Amino acid sequence: xxxxxxxxxxxxxxxxxxxxxxxxxxxxxxxxxxxxxxxxxxxxxxxxxxxxxxxxxxxxxxxxxxxxxxxxxxxxxxxxxxxxxxxxxxxxxxxxxxxxxxxxxxxxxxxxxxxxxxxxxxxxxxxxxxxxxxxxxxxxxxxxxxxxxxxxxxxxxxxxxxxxxxxxxxxxxxxxxxxxxxxxxxxxxxxxxxxxxxxxxxxxxxxxxxxxxxxxxxxxxxxxxxxxxxxxxxxxxxxxxxxxxxxxxxxxxxxxxxxxxxxxxxxxxxxxxxxxxxxxxxxxxxxxxxxxxxxxxxxxxxxxxxxxxxxxxxxxxxxxxxxxxxxxxxxxxxxxxxxxxxxxxxxxxxxxxxxxxxxxxxxxxxxxxxxxxxxxxxxxxxxxxxxxxxxxxxxxxxxxxxxxxxxxxxxxxxxxxxxxxxxxxxxxxxxxxxxxxxxxxxxxxxxxxxxxxxxxxxxxxxxxxxxxxxxxxxxxxxxxxxxxxxxxxxxxxxxxxxxxxxxxxxxxxxxxxxxxxxxxxxxxxxxxxxxxxx
Length: 534
Prior knowledge:
4-stranded antiparallel beta sheet, Dipeptide-binding Protein, domain 3, alpha+beta, SBP_5_dom, peptide transmembrane transporter activity, 12-stranded mixed beta sheet, Peptide/nickel transport system substrate-binding protein, 14 helices, Dipeptide-binding Protein, domain 1, signal
């Protein structure tokens, strides 16, 4: 086994107008058989989530990684790092000095995979559909700065924004802004089941058993015109119950690539060099983990309780015991590598201290020990999540200030329950929609936030978030971004825990592995090819 570390440029979060044309269509297969990719992501149709791959509903990294292969967007994140580039668009850019009018021109001759032409009217239909449906997943909030959408002929579309939004090009690169054929998608309702169509690099065919995806076959779309070069004819993504089953499959040669989520023990084993036929690639990542609070719940309604938890939890010990070198302590919602990051929680609370936490609770008149239950998902973020919550439970209980129990739930019940406010405290992860500080703050703190959190701060929503979006130079937004992070550290509606690396493993005849996942954890299957082993 060979270990490879991918070093990417620092995420600067700088957004500039994109007006130049870019890219071309794929070059064809470089290998014979389909490349088989393993994942532990689970895709299930339930009563609460009947349309898990509809762009107007899907809002988790696993589902988005299916959508990004099939549904094309006006803009796309580039290979490596940098500002978004035109994909379905020939060119895009702000046409005013205030970042409130954004115009795009579609590529000439663009069609869906079924041969239907892609028009500006389809772009308008698709984005207005997501805004109208406003699914309870919260994904439509990414588009909430749009006021009206205007079309000019079949190829030009103009977005008029409610307020300045320098991050808007990135938002147009996310699946919620995917371009859909009105023949396939109802205007006012979600498309149930596992049907997915678009004009992206691949077509989509799911194998389903017991209302869950077993595997997805992605076949190269011959009609695709866009920014990506497609290096294969077919990729099959197989869903596994856990990391051990996925690891056994790559050992046998049943799969070629192993993606999220590998366990810490599995990564350490691969890193030891026990398999000369498998390469492990580690790369910078922007994944974060945090505790979220239902701030209306009696157990944690008092800010002092949430502050005391922030004062007690030892992130360094947590990371060391559970994740080792695969994660780093995080003291803000914004990762340390993103422009605008501030160590707000460390600045406020310093090192863990039960004595300081006791004083916070005493001043607020809170009786100790505070009894509460922390909830986590058993099958969405990897098998180490249970161990993580056991460490957190012990830290809080050992302080003598808390009496914490923990409960694990499968994602298909965990996520709907969290959205409905059934958990007082619960663990979540975040994989950014795009690599900008705004996307680590607004989704949690703005109106219609994706957590469904009752926490609301008028200064953040009315002033600081809009201010932070006004300048394409993200360094200029630092003051507003720091104030937001300091407010979060004071009020603790969420409690950041750690920031993780990314890993991908592949058999040594697979090429393009280093670019198969970008810093936003976006799976880019088109980068994969088949070469010569050795």
